[in-house]
Amino acid sequence: MSAAAASARPSRPASGVSGAARARRATGLDVVLVLGLELVACALFVPAFGPAVGAGAAAGGVCAGALVGAAGRWRRLSALPVLALAAVVHLGVAPWALPDVGRGAGAVRAVLRATVTVWRDALTLPLPLSAFPTMSVLPWLTGLAAATVAVRALLDGRVHAAGLAVVCQALVALAWGAPAALAPRAIGAGLTCGVLLLWALAFQRGRRSRVAEVLAGSDAGLRRGARLGAVRAVAVLAAAGTAAGALTPAPAQDRVVLRSLLAPPVDLTQYATPLSLVRALETEFASTTLMTVSGVGEDGRVRMAALDAYDGLSARIDQGDSSRFQRVGADTPLTGAGTHSPRAREVVVRLRDYSFAWVPTVSDALSIAVSGPRADVVSDSLHYDMSSSTGIATAGLTGGDVLTEQVVVPAVPSDADLALLGTGSPRLGAVVNVPASVEAMARSIVDTASEPVAQIRLLQQALRAGYYSDGTTGSSPPGHGTARIAQMVEAGELVGDDEQYSVLMMLLCRSLGIPARVVMGFKPATDGDASTVTGQDISAWVEVDFRQVGWVAVDVTPDRDHVPQQQNTQKVSNPEPRVLQPPLPLQHPAELPPAYDDGHGNSPDDRDAGPDLRLVLAVGGGLLVLVAPVVTILTLKALRRRRRRRGSGPDRAVGAWDEVVDRARDLGSTPPAGATRREEAEVLAPGFPTADLRRFARAVDAQIFGSGEPSPSAVDGLWESADAMMRAMSTGRSAPRRLIARLSTHSLRRLPRQRTARRFRRRLVRGGLTRRRNP
Predict the structure, then answer these.
(1) Cα–Cα nearest to 617, from 625, 605, 609
(2) pLDDT score recorded for residue 210
(3) Cis before residue 376, ω within 30 degrees of 0?
(4) Is the predicted pLDDT of residue 131 greater than 70, yes or no?
């Protein structure tokens, strides 16, 4: 074999071991990067679960999944055996690793059941989800599945699948998470840049190996270009991530997640207003024991519901705010103070003959735990509205149910302190169809008083001066609709019970702009026994909101022994039947006066019209004139590159070299006309020391003048090499110089003689007439 032939033989790596070691090292770095990104994605479970449960369970799943993926690759298992192995790890490790699934065989059954149901429960239960059992299965299972897929894909060389597994884990954490985000700028930008970096490094390594294969040996220029490309990729991703994190606006408080789309609100229209129970409880169930209460104190109140809206028929909870009722568990905080407070005390409510959906609570309740024979049923249907301190069990309550509450009874400030604080501005329901006599009554009572506390006390004194009647004797019909309230106000004297007086007080306060609502509940000490609640203890009062204090109770019902003179205080066993209030007549909508056009273009639409169309066209035309040349040059070069890559085998190989030569022209180096590729390479090489143009020219000639047609893979490798050459050629040039080269038209303005000579050589190549030239 001649020395020339030996020198022309493609050089091989000195040892295959070094290449395998580099591949293992690169795969190991990819695995470390992917696992790091998945651990970062575990933080997205914190808003919904808390750091100890959500992030900890997800991180444990990631570690277990990494081991499963590595074991599957080591044993060369297919997809189904790997899935089976992951299921075994899930059922074998989760019952002992997760803190909220119990222990023993019951924990295994709980994990197996939660594997199916946790996806639904996580969308319907209130936050934090750690207040409910088996909910940590969701982050654990998500981390286990994502890490198994990612590690197995990386070890099999499927880098894109591994990156998608990381993205899927983050999407699950966001979709099943909370509307509030945890550091969205930092975590979002970090995950995005990390996945893109993973893909970019894998693409860089694959391209370098293909280029080295085409050039039949290692190349110092290509290595340097590859390293510079990797450094540039990292720098660009870091800059992009920093810019995205700094410029991205903060997310809204109410971010749309799956729970906001799928969690059905409580339908309050299925439940009658609690005030409709007042007359029946205070008469028919006066001596019936409804519940026993321990720990509430002599002056404590047991609440049933707070009503802040009035529609002319009844006082209700605002129907537009029914979504405020959220599922609660034993550890769900019912106020912003959490579930524990040094001033908290325990109140135990044992239901007897109580069979309503409204949950008896004590303000301010911090938490509610249900026990008794129906504990599971009641707990699964327990909802609570934190803004009104109202609870409802959609499955209903009955005798035997036990409610254990941690409560803090708030202190009542003095009137002087309340006057200094002033009333608040809470969100309340609408008050409509109020009799006009109510506002007139309010104005006449407060007279010249303008301070809210003084107005409230004047209204309170006026109402407590009335008479109490439960309807057993005398004329005091039940209900609190428009007709009943108007009758009460327009009569010579006020007569009613807690139902009418509380609603009237709310309407009087709301007509003066004072934020008030009606609260129905019980005063256990009314009958002298604070531990036993009977129907005689039923009561209703008004709460007014003050800044920094919250809702303050105001009693407006007269004493029960202050009855009208014609009423016999001896109650009878057969009270008058309750009647429904007649519906209000339909009101015709008000007619608006017709709108007239004065013909002078002074309508609001004309005044709000946008800028002149001619100005818009002028500005747009000027921008188009500035941008059009740049777009035209870039489009022509892109079309030229596309035409060269879509030719036949020899033409595509020649096009790869022509692309490199055109880049040299745009950078200011022009080869001689009519020269061969090797001659052009000799002329251009001194100007581009980082790109080995001589070796690349020989590689192109080897594909064109070799035996047979060039293979598509070999030509693709030439184009990969051409891209590497062009990047290496730009090394050392400043950014403005590279931009000028991109927009240069020098390579688009070839001389006719050059184009004719190049077309002639291409025809010779197709006909096989030049194979003896350039041996």
Answers:
(1) 625
(2) 58
(3) no
(4) yes
For 669, the enclosing helix (H) or strand (E) is none
Pairing mode of beta strands 495-496, 467-468: parallel
Task: Determine how many CB atoms are found less than 10 A away from the CB of residue 737.
Answer: 13
> What's 709's DSSP letter?
P
The pLDDT score that the predictor gives to residue 754 is: 45
pTM above 0.85, yes or no: no
**Structural domain containing residue 139:** 17-259
Render pLDDT for 663-679 as a digit per residue (tens, 0 to 9).
888 888 888 887 888 88
**Closest by CA position to 723, among listed 659, 770, 675, 676:** 659
How sure is the predictor about 264, in pLDDT bands with cuts at 50, 70 and 90? low
Look-up of token digits 């000490």? 525
Percent of the chain with pLDDT over 70: 77
Structural domain count, the chain: 3
Of the candidates 259, 292, 324, which is a domain's last residue? 259
Q: Tell me, what's the pLDDT at 336?
A: 66
- Residue 240 has a pLDDT of 59
Judgement on whether residues 227 and 288 belong to the same structural domain of the protein: no
> Could you tell me if residue 154 is inside a domain?
yes
DSSP 385-431: ETTTTEEEETT---TT-EEEEEE-------HHHHHHH-B-------B
Per-residue pLDDT, 398: 92
Query: Domain check: are 643 and 726 in the same one?
Result: yes
Residues 409 and 519 in one domain: yes
Segment 183-212 mean pLDDT: 74
pLDDT at 18 (0 to 100): 54
Q: Are residues 21 and 68 in the same domain?
A: yes
Give the phi and the psi of residue 138 in degrees, each rounded to 5.
-65, -55
> What is the spatial distance between Cα 179 and Cα 253, in angstroms, rounded to a whole number?
7
Residue 42 shares a structural domain with residue 151: yes
- Does 306 have pLDDT greater than 50? yes
What's the burial of 351, exposed, middle or buried (CB within 10 Å: 0-12/13-18/19+)? buried
Record the tokens describing residue 147, joined without a space. 């890490």
Q: Residue 433 pLDDT more than 50?
A: yes
Place of tokens 């609690």: 274
Q: Is there a single domain that holds both residue 322 and residue 437?
A: yes
- H/E stretch holding 123 reads helix 105-124
Q: What is the DSSP string of 235-295?
A: HHHHHHHHHHHHHSPPPPSS---HHHHH-PPP-GGGS--GGGGHHHHHHTTTT-EEEEEES
The b-or-e profile of 683-718 (16+ CB within 10 A means b, else e) is bbbeebebbbbebbbbbbbbbbbeeeebeeebbebb
Question: How far is Cα 471 from Cα 473, in angstroms, rounded to an integer?
Answer: 5
Asked, for residue 577, whether it belongs to a domain, the answer is no
For residue 292, which phi and psi values (nearest 5 degrees)?
A: -120, 140
